[in-house]
Design brief:
It is a single chain. The protein folds into three domains: 276 residues, Rhopdopsin 7-helix transmembrane proteins (Up-down Bundle); 136 residues, Immunoglobulin-like (Sandwich), CATH 2.60.40; 146 residues, Alpha-Beta Plaits (2-Layer Sandwich). It has a six-stranded antiparallel β-sheet with strand order 3-2-4-9-6-7. It has a four-stranded antiparallel β-sheet with strand order 1-10-5-8, with helices on one face. Strands 14-15-13-16 form a four-stranded antiparallel β-sheet, sandwiched between helices. β14 and β15 form a beta hairpin. The protein is α+β, with helices and mostly antiparallel strands and 584 residues long. The protein has 15 helices and 16 strands. GO terms for molecular function: diguanylate cyclase activity. InterPro entries: Diguanylate_Cyclase, GGDEF_dom, Nucleotide_cyclase, Rev_trsase/Diguanyl_cyclase.
Length: 584
């Protein structure tokens, strides 16, 4: 296996590769790739009057970036107004994003735009929404008033940027600021879908690893959340309520997808603690979705619970993964394969690749959740700085680590499996009969005491008159006799767990069940099969002697002694057959 493992000296290439990919993505997200706007886009920051009736906060002629309005909620409006620029722009509009509130826009006291008033009246969750407010030709210098009516206890505590400009230019500016999440989110969704289809096919038709299906689900969930959080679905479909709901469902499903993947792929997670964690995640999702759909409590109000559960599970995962890596070194000399990732292996390096990706992802998740809490509860204008950049980079590293782990271990698994089959064929197969040879039989006998919980049965078989055939007809006929008998043995005892040739004219059959009736039935079938062979050919007459011994469940019996007992009974029958031939 050493020929197929990556050297420890090459492990440092993995973080360097990930760092290089991250730097490329950061460069891709730089303003260097932005397109120049035709008419220009202006963010309306200064000169606002703001009143939040929920907290009583009031500001005059303030920049929105500095307006610490506190919590907006409880159906108490937030009113803000300013004077529009005097510059005239073709197809001019105000474009801004709102959270969990209805919107009314007035121009010099005249209502020109409204959104989500009907949703508010029904008591449903007002979705995230990009408001596009077309302005009349005579807008320059007029006063615009925006009234936001929040319908949650905590709807928002600040303002997203309010853009003034040409609609096409503004859309382009917003999308260019989301280039990185668009790229990574789309990649993860497509990659997850492709991996799901491939892994499902491999699982059904080629005995593939079920963990890959859950890995695909992780990628798709994360990609969906990244695209939804950054409002990218809102630009391609007019279904704000659905995509806001999907954002939360995808977020709530990520911890569940990860824990199921780890349980399916990693033997160290198959214990009651992590089964309980998985059940808890299922219950949280079922409860929150049900409460939302019944319009009892909106799903956005359970975010703090998810953060607490997510951080707790992340710490638990990291500790358990580190413990699993430490215990790998203690199991290197064991027969049993180590399971860490998506393929069984004894490769510590491939497991470390997976571990690195998981730790990077979980650390990034903890960082983003911590920043969210700090900005929301201790900062001001949280919505303006709301992002999940750490989560995006961590997610990419995590999915790539799964891909690399599977790629490395698949190559190793295929190589080792092919080599093992080839060596096993050379070392454990009898050339003449195609049955297991003595070495293979001895190994199986030695392992019977460990593997056979239902006991085991050993049948010792000896072909009669082989020496006579060799002496009178030649060794080539003796070989033919052995070949014909081994074919009969395969046909009659096709249900045996092992058929082998111990050497010369001695054969063995092993059943991993201690049953005398099973042995008698097997020998009766072999007698019938030998009789059929004798009726088809006249060159020699096949006959055999046998003896069997069994070890039933619960008896502490040495398999070697059981075989010797069967062999002794076989020789007793052989003596009887010999006396019968002498009397004839």
């Amino acid at each position: 296996m050493d020929n197929y493992e990556f050297s420890l000296k090459r492990l440092w290439l993995i973080p360097i590769l990930m760092f290089f990919i991250i730097m490329l993505l950061v460069a891709f997200d730089s303003p260097f790739f932005n397109t120049k706007n035709q008419y220009g886009v202006q963010e309306l920051v200064d000169g606002w009057d703001v009143i939040n009736e929920n907290t009583g906060a009031s500001f005059k002629n303030i920049a929105l970036t500095k307006a610490d309005i506190g919590i907006a909620g409880n159906y108490k409006p937030v009113t803000m107004n300013c004077t529009l620029p005097s510059k005239r722009i073709p197809s001019g509009a105000l474009i801004f994003r709102t959270y969990y509130c209805s919107v009314e826009v007035y121009l010099d006291g005249e209502l020109i735009y409204t959104y989500a008033k009907d949703i508010l009246e029904k008591g449903h969750m007002c979705p995230k929404h990009y408001n596009v407010v077309p302005l009349p030709d005579n807008y320059p210098g007029r006063e615009v008033t925006i009234v936001l009516m929040p319908n949650e206890v905590y709807s928002f505590s600040g303002f997203a940027p309010i853009y003034f400009g040409n609609v096409e230019d503004t859309y382009r500016t917003i999308l260019e600021s989301k280039r990185l999440p668009l790229l990574i989110g789309t990649f993860l969704c497509i990659f997850g879908l492709a991996m799901f289809i491939t892994s499902l096919y491999l699982f059904v038709y080629h005995n593939g690893n079920i963990a890959l299906i859950f890995a695909a689900n992780i990628s798709f969930d994360i990609g969906t959340y990244i695209l939804s959080f950054n409002d990218l679905y809102l630009f391609i479909a007019d279904a704000d309520e659905f995509y806001t709901f999907i954002e939360y469902v995808a977020l709530f499903c990520i911890p569940l997808s990860i824990i199921i993947f780890l349980i399916a792929s990693n033997s160290y997670f198959r214990n009651w603690v992590f089964y309980l964690v998985a059940v808890l995640d299922v219950l949280i999702i079922a409860y929150t979705v049900t409460m939302h759909l019944l319009n009892i409590e909106h799903i956005c109000n359970y975010l703090s619970i998810l953060h607490f559960v997510g951080i707790s599970e992340a710490v638990l995962f990291i500790v358990r993964l580190i413990m699993s890596i430490v215990s790998i070194n203690k199991k290197k000399d064991d027969e049993e394969d180590i399971v860490l990732g998506v393929v069984q292996s004894k490769s510590t390096i491939s497991s470390l690749v997976f571990l690195i990706g998981v730790i990077i992802f979980l650390i990034c998740v903890i960082v983003d959740i911590s920043l969210y809490i700090i900005r929301r509860d201790f900062g001001s204008n949280f919505e303006r700085h709301s992002n999940i950049n750490f989560f995006i980079i961590g997610s990419l590293c995590f999915v790539l680590s799964i891909l690399l782990n599977y790629f490395f271990l698949s190559i190793e698994h295929i190589s080792v499996e092919n080599s093992a089959k080839h060596l096993k064929g050379l070392a454990y197969t009898d050339d003449l009969t195609g049955l297991s040879n003595r070495a293979r039989c001895e190994l199986e006998i030695a392992s019977l005491g460990k593997k056979s919980r239902e006991g085991f049965s050993i049948i010792s078989i000896d072909v009669d008159k082989l020496k006579t055939v060799n002496d009178t007809m030649g060794h080539h006929m003796g070989d033919k006799l052995l070949k014909v008998f081994s074919d009969a043995l395969k046909e009659a005892l096709n249900d045996a767990d092992l058929l082998g040739r111990m050497g010369g004219d001695e054969f063995i059959a092993i059943y991993k069940k201690g049953s005398e009736s099973l042995c008698r039935s097997a020998m009766n079938r072999l007698v019938e099969e030998v009789d059929r062979c004798n009726s088809k050919q006249t060159e020699f007459e096949l006959s055999f002697s046998y003896g069997y011994a069994i070890c039933k469940n619960g008896r502490n019996k040495n398999p070697r002694n059981v075989y010797m007992e069967a062999d002794k009974k076989m020789y007793e029958m052989k003596k009887i057959h010999h006396k019968e031939r002498e009397s004839l």
